Amino acid sequence: MSSKQQLVKLNDGHFIPALGFGTYKPEEVPENKPLEAIHLAVEAGFRHIDTAYVYQTENHVGQAIKSKIAAGIVKREDIFITTKLWCTFHRPEMVLSSLEKSLKNLQLDYVDLYIIHYPMQMKSGEDMFPEDENGKTLFDTVDLCATWEAMEKCKDAGLAKSIGVSNFNRRQLEKILNKPGLKYKPVCNQVECHLYLNQSKLLNYCKSRDIVLVAYCALGSQRPKRWVDPSSPVLLNDPVLCDVAKKHQRSSAQIALRYQLQRGNVVLAQSYKENEIKENIQVFEFELPSEDMKILDSLDRNLRYAPAPFGQGHPEYPFSDEF
Question: The pTM is what?
Answer without folding.
Answer: 0.96
